[in-house]
Structures are given as structure tokens and as C-alpha cells.
Amino acid sequence: MPNRFGLVKAFVAAAALACALPVAASAADPPWSVGDTGQPQGVRTVRAGTDAVMTLTGEASPVLRILRRERQVVARCAPRPSYDPLTFGSAPAVRRAVTLSARGRSLRIRRAFGRASDDTCVVWSDGAKARPLAVATLTPRGTEWLDELDATALLYFGFDAAEAVPDRPHGRAPTLQQVVAVVKRWTGSESPLDDSPVSALANPGDTPPARHVGYWSDGDQHFVLAVATPAGRRVYMEFQAGGIEVSNIEVFASDL
After folding, report:
1. Using one digit for the tens of pLDDT, what is the confidence trace for 3-17?
2. What is the pTM of this model?
3. For residues 13 and 30, is the Cβ–Cβ distance under 8 A?
4. Closest CA to 123 of 192, 187, 60
5. Sequence-ordered list of residues with C-beta below 8 angstroms from that of 140, at least 6 positions apart, any chain
6. Measured between alpha carbons, how far is 218 from 20 in angstroms, rounded to an integer?
7. Is the pLDDT of residue 89 over 70?
8. Neighbours of 174 (CB within 10 A)
9. Confidence class of residue 69 from pLDDT cuts 50, 70 and 90?
10. Which residues, at least 6 apart from 203, have a Cβ–Cβ distance to it below 8 Å?
11. Distance separating alpha carbons of residues 74 and 24, to the nearest angstrom
12. CB contact burial 8-32 (16+ within 10 A = b; e otherwise)
């Protein structure tokens, strides 16, 4: 299987707060929190002619402070998914100008709806340290893509926790209790197992509750991580003997 997962992880790392988990983030992390609607929490996007106007409040309001500081901000609009696993090609993103309102309470993506095939516009800081700041979804397909990204970020949170279990034999799958212990250490939580964002799967094909990472292992070399998207799709990774056996993670283009 081609190593497609590096592309996914490289981008979802920028969306670490999408998991809505109390994980400490550095000051450089974008305050990006994807909710059940597929939009970042506190983000409202409306169409104004061919432009998209984004209002950012609540959890998303720090994005505006970042935008006021940045000298180079652009939007990159693209169809989703933009990566075609059959041709190994990416649909080209188009750059769109971004302007801040006079009062600095909203931003306008110029000609966001100028190309009918585009599903999302990702607002980027385009300076020396380029990073994504917010996402405008233009179509239901764009919302579904953002939900997939959210689920993938949460899935990798569980995977990183499983990989961080200390002192386990090489190739041996960690137990649920070990994974939960790592999560508690990362989050500083003293909550009981039932309150953990990691929950037990009854079997390898089971689906976890919303906003949870489901975990199952056979106690040997086989373990499964799964997350349910808001639309009810089960996103999962299955490992055996230290390698990825099966996954249905969508591939996210590196040119977001």
C-alpha cells in the first residue's frame, strides 16, 4: 500500500484542536475547532455574489486577531476530495484574495464561488510560516470533506496515544486501559474510563459513540481504531503485526 498517510497527518496536525479535546496547544497553533456541522465552531459563512463572507466569533474569534497581524493572507479554493487515488493526481487549487472588514469582525474571500467545481476555501497565512487558519465550506460535499478531516484528526489522536504507550513489547498491541492512561496524562484528566474520549469497541467492526475514538485489540498484535463522522460514516485504521492492514481514510491533498 502506498504511504498515503503521511499526507493526511501532515495536514491534520495543523488541525489538532479539531478534536475538541483538552490537549495543550502551542501559541502557534491555529484556533481551529471543527464542530458537528462541518464548520469550525463560531464560524458562519454566507454567500455574497461570488464572494464568501466569513464571520468568526466565540472559539474562532482568535483567528481574526491572527489575521490582523498577518501581512499575507490568501484563500486556496479547491474541489473535494482534491486527491484522486486512481490517477495519483491533485485538482489544482486557485488562489483567492482575502480582505478583512473595516471593523475587523469578518473576512471576505473574493470570488470564492467563481469556480463551480470548488467545495472549500482554506484561509492561509501565506508568509514565511505558512499555515491554515480557517475553512469556508461552499457545498455539502465540502462540509462532508471537512467532517472527514475532523474524524481523521481524532483518529490520529487515538493512534498517537496507542503509539505512546510505554514499555510494551515490540509489535504487541496496547490494551484499552494503557491507551486511556496516555490520554489522561496528555490531557491532565483524572476522569474515569467511561468519561475518556477513547472508548471500547465490542468487536473490530464496531462503531464508537460520537466524538470518541473507538479502540479494540486482541491482546496480541491486532488492534483497530475507529471514529464516526457526523454523517455516520465509520472511519478506521486496522493494524496487525505493526503494519496498517486496512484503512478507509480519505487522502487530503498536500496543496491545501
Report:
1. 333 334 434 443 332
2. 0.71
3. no
4. 60
5. none
6. 29
7. no
8. 21
9. confident
10. 216
11. 28
12. beebbebbbbbbbbeeeeeeeebbb
- Furthest C-alpha separation in the chain: 60
pLDDT in tens, 34-59: 333 344 467 888 999 999 999 888 77
Dihedral sign for Cα atoms in the order 127, 131, 136, 140: positive
The grid coordinates listed for 208 are 464508537
Check: CB of residue 163 under 8 Å from CB of residue 171.
no
Alpha-carbon distance of 173 to 243, in angstroms, equals 11
Cell representation of residue 180: 486511556
Quickly list H helices, 125-175.
140-163
Is 154 within 8 Å of 227 (Cβ atoms)?
yes
**Single-letter code of the amino acid located at 209:** P
The rounded radius of gyration (Å) of the Cα atoms in the chain is: 19
Please state the domain extents for the chain.
5-136, 144-247
Which residue type occupies 222?
A: H
Reduced to 3 states (helix: H, G, I; strand: E, B; else coil), residue 154 is helix
Grid coordinates 463551480 are at which residue?
Answer: 116
What are the CA-CA distances from residue 256 to residues 38, 73, 79, 92, 121 (Å)?
Answer: 17, 14, 10, 10, 9
